[in-house]
């Protein structure tokens, strides 16, 4: 029994073709939207590529850009088919291409669904990328005189100001690295010498943070040095008092920003996938309804359209049998080649008669 079997007369076929033509052009605009989202996400990721450890995060925008281009191409082509289907003479040239085209549409819809899922599932990969990238970026914060790294201070400062964050996981991350350049340290000072000698790596570590960690909304002047030294500041207890530094780490802030963006894009791509699937089903109904016309010379006669000629169970069973036949055929060929190779490797025995 055919799946989604529908009876059509000429009027219904014409309405279906016109509706599909319109839907295909809506899908072209949807493809442009997907392409634009991918381009926007790629630009946003490139803006902060210095604090990302690898290029894996660009898989999502690149996939969206590709899906957008393919969507425009596939749906533009389908729109032309639907338009020509109103004229039997024009439609005849498209008939041999419809089955392969529908097969391509099926795999294309699987890809769209896969890309939508990736948009939701990239959070874990993005988290590790940001964690390592921010850690490396903070290490290079002080290298304002080093070629290739002199921009990192500005990048980190602008990032912390824009996203209202501090450090990788929090402001205490700055206590573990030397973020002040040696150029601005007085090595004749006893305090500087003592601090450098106080750790194995010989780094100048302070319980302070860059100015970009300060929260301008705080009524108290920013305490960015000696943050953990209560006696250095009047009426201050860093463990109980609400600090005038950003509490949230930049990894969490960026992860939330990009995850929200990707989730929204994933939802849009899912809607596009549903729309594309409905277009593919409609195109299949149009294809089968036109092919099943009993008398091609009488376009007004009734016909039947379906999505699958047999039930879903029978179709899957038939597909599995076809795959098994292909597998057996390949196995027979491989055995034949192996047998030929063994025969070719044997050398005939020569018997001498005395």
From TrEMBL:
Gene Ontology terms: biological process: cell adhesion; visual perception
Residue ranges of the TM segments: 20-41, 101-122, 255-275
Keywords assigned: Cell adhesion, Disulfide bond, Glycoprotein, Membrane, Transmembrane, Transmembrane helix
Compartments where located: Membrane
PROSITE patterns for this protein: RDS_ROM1
Family: Belongs to the PRPH2/ROM1 family.
Name the UniProt record assigns to this protein: Peripherin-2
Lineage of origin: Eukaryota, Metazoa, Chordata, Craniata, Vertebrata
